[in-house]
Design brief:
alpha/beta; OB fold (Dihydrolipoamide Acetyltransferase, E2P); 4 domains; 18-stranded mixed β-sheet; 4-stranded antiparallel β-sheet; about 20% helix
Length: about 500
C-alpha cells in the first residue's frame, strides 16, 4: 500500500502543539483526516503574535498541505494581533472521496396505466383507481438493463494523503420465470408475454395475476398481459384488461372488462353503462343492464335481461329468459323464455354479423345524404356523372357487405318454454313481430317457400337452419313434381 494513501480506521484524533514566546498554537486533525482545527492562546507575559508567514511554516512542519479556508485564516490572524484566544477554529478541509454508485436494474418498460403528461400544463385530476403499476411485455421484449457499479472518485486528507474511493455494490439480481440474461450480462429479455415483477431481487415475467379479494381501491385498475383471476367482486368504476382471459368468482358492477381470451363471472349488473369486450367466449350466471361485444359464445345459466349483446357465436340462456334489450348472434340463440308478459321491448337479430349490419346502416345513411344533397341542389349545379359514380360506389359496397358469408352463420332461434308476444325477431334479412304467445319447445327459422317464419319442434343449434329449410324445399319440389305428373295423367 502506498505511503501517501490514507487508511480509514487506522488513525484517531491527531494533535500538534507549537509554543513560542508570544503564543501557543495547536492543530487538531479529525479521525477521517478531512478537517484541521486550530487553537490559539496569546502569552500572558507579552511577546510577538502569530504572523501569516509563521503559520505557513507551522503547517508545512506537520505536512498540512491542503488549502486554508480564507475566512478562518483572517479570523486567526486578527485574533492573534488583538491578543485574543481562538478555540477550535476550522482552518483547513480536505477533499472527501466520492463513493461509486451501486449497480442498478433499470426497467425498460413503462406503466400501461400511467397517464401521459399534458403539453399545455393543465393540472390533471388524480385517478385514485391507479394504485399499482402494470409494466407489460411481449415475448422478446427488453425487460431491463443492468448497470455496472461505479468506481467512485478519490479524495485527499488535510495532510495530502489520497483517500481511495469506495466502489459501488454490484446488483444482486436473480432471474425468475420467463426471463433470460444476455451474453454480456447487461440485458434481461422476456421469454413470454406478461407483467414484469421484481420481488426480493427476483425479476420475472408473470402471465397469471390472482387477486385474493375484491378489485377495489386497494387493488385499483388492472392492465395485464396474461390471465387475471379475481376471488371476490369487481366494484363499480374499475376496469380489468387482460390479454389471456379473466375469471371473476364474484359479481361485476358498473365496470369495464376487456380481454382477447375467455371471460367468466358470477353475475353482472352494468346499470346501462357497464361494458365487456371479449375476444373469446363469455360465461356467467346472470347478466343485467350491460353492453357486451363478444367474438365467441355468450352463455348465461339463469337470465339475461335489459342488455345489448353483440356476438359472433351463440347466445344461450340455459334455465331462464332473454328479456328486454337487443341481442345479435351470428350462430343462433337458445333460451328457456324469450320476451316477457310486460311491454318490455325485446329484439333478437340472428344469423347476421353485427358489424356488417352497422356498416350497412352507415352506407344507407351515406346514400340517403347523397340523394338529399342532390335533391336540394339548384338545377344544373350538380355534376350528374359525379353523382352517379358516388351512388355506384355506395351500391357496390352494399352488395359486397351483403355477399359476405360465414361458416358458423345460423339464423335460428330456439325457445324451450315460452315465446312471448311483442318480441321482434330478425332472421337474416327477414324481420317480424310475434303477435301471439307460443309455447315451446320450438325452433324458429326462415320460411323461404311461403315467406315469414317457420315454427318447428325444437332441434339443437348444431342443426343449422339452412339444412332444415333445405329439407322443406326439397319436399316442396317433390310435391310440385307430383302435382305436375297427376295433372298430365288427368289431361291424357
Amino acid at each position: 500500500m502506498a505511503e501517501n494513501q490514507f487508511v480509514k480506521g487506522t488513525e484517531s484524533i491527531s494533535r500538534f502543539e507549537i509554543k513560542r514566546y508570544g503564543y501557543t498554537l495547536s492543530f487538531e486533525i479529525s479521525p477521517d483526516a478531512l478537517e484541521c482545527y486550530c487553537f490559539y492562546e496569546p502569552s500572558a507575559i507579552g511577546g510577538t503574535p502569530l504572523t501569516n508567514s509563521e503559520l505557513l511554516q507551522h503547517l508545512a512542519q506537520f505536512s498540512l498541505s491542503e488549502s486554508i479556508i480564507p475566512e478562518a485564516l483572517s479570523t486567526l490572524l486578527i485574533s492573534a494581533v488583538s491578543a485574543k484566544p481562538v478555540s477550535r477554529l476550522l482552518l483547513m478541509t480536505g477533499t472527501p472521496m466520492i463513493p461509486g454508485e451501486d449497480g442498478q436494474v433499470v426497467m425498460s418498460v413503462f406503466d400501461d396505466l400511467a397517464e401521459k403528461e399534458q403539453d399545455d400544463g393543465i393540472e390533471k385530476n388524480i385517478d385514485f383507481r391507479h394504485v399499482q403499476s402494470f409494466m407489460n411485455v411481449e415475448a422478446g421484449d427488453l425487460v431491463a438493463t443492468i448497470s455496472s457499479p461505479g468506481t467512485g472518485k478519490p479524495g485527499r486528507t488535510v495532510t495530502g494523503k489520497i483517500i481511495p474511493p469506495q466502489p459501488g455494490a454490484p446488483v444482486k439480481l436473480q432471474l425468475g420465470q420467463n426471463v433470460r440474461l444476455s451474453e454480456d450480462s447487461q440485458s434481461v429479455f422476456a421469454l413470454d408475454a406478461g407483467r414484469i415483477c421484481l420481488r426480493e431481487n427476483i425479476l420475472s415475467v408473470e402471465d397469471i395475476y390472482e387477486i385474493a379479494g375484491d378489485v377495489d381501491f386497494k387493488v385499483g385498475n388492472i392492465s395485464f398481459k396474461g390471465y387475471v383471476e379475481v376471488k371476490g367482486d369487481v366494484l363499480d368504476g374499475f376496469f380489468i384488461k387482460a390479454t389471456k382471459g379473466i375469471k371473476v368468482l364474484g359479481n361485476i358492477g358498473v365496470c369495464t372488462l376487456e380481454s382477447d381470451g375467455d371471460i367468466s363471472f358470477c353475475g353482472m349488473n352494468g346499470q346501462g353503462t357497464g361494458t365487456i369486450k371479449c375476444g373469446g367466449s363469455i360465461s356467467a350466471n346472470f347478466i343485467y343492464d350491460s353492453l357486451i361485444e363478444c367474438a365467441g359464445d355468450v352463455t348465461a345459466e339463469v337470465e339475461i335481461r335489459s342488455s345489448i349483446i353483440k356476438c359472433l357465436g351463440m347466445i344461450t340462456v340455459n334455465k331462464g329468459g332473454l328479456t328486454g334489450g337487443e341481442y345479435f348472434a351470428l350462430a343462433g340463440i337458445e333460451c328457456a323464455n324469450l320476451g316477457c308478459v310486460t311491454s318490455l321491448r325485446t329484439r333478437v337479430v340472428v344469423g347476421v354479423h353485427y358489424a356488417n349490419l352497422e356498416e350497412l346502416n352507415r352506407l344507407f345513411n351515406e346514400l340517403k345524404q347523397l340523394v338529399a344533397e342532390f335533391t336540394a341542389a339548384a338545377k344544373g349545379s350538380v355534376d350528374m356523372k359525379e353523382f352517379a359514380q358516388k351512388r355506384a360506389i355506395i351500391t357496390e359496397r352494399t352488395h359486397e357487405v351483403r355477399s359476405r358469408q360465414y361458416d358458423n352463420c345460423n339464423p335460428k332461434v330456439n325457445v324451450k318454454n315460452s315465446l312471448f308476444e311483442g318480441v321482434n325477431i330478425t332472421l337474416g334479412m327477414i324481420s317480424d313481430n310475434i303477435i301471439e304467445e307460443r309455447k315451446g319447445p320450438l325452433s324458429i327459422i326462415e320460411n323461404t317457400i311461403e315467406g315469414g317464419f317457420r315454427f318447428l319442434g325444437m332441434t339443437p343449434l348444431t342443426f343449422k337452419a339452412e339444412m332444415i329449410e333445405q329439407t322443406f324445399v326439397q319436399q316442396h319440389m317433390l310435391e310440385q313434381q307430383k302435382s305436375r305428373l297427376n295433372f298430365q295423367e288427368e289431361g291424357s
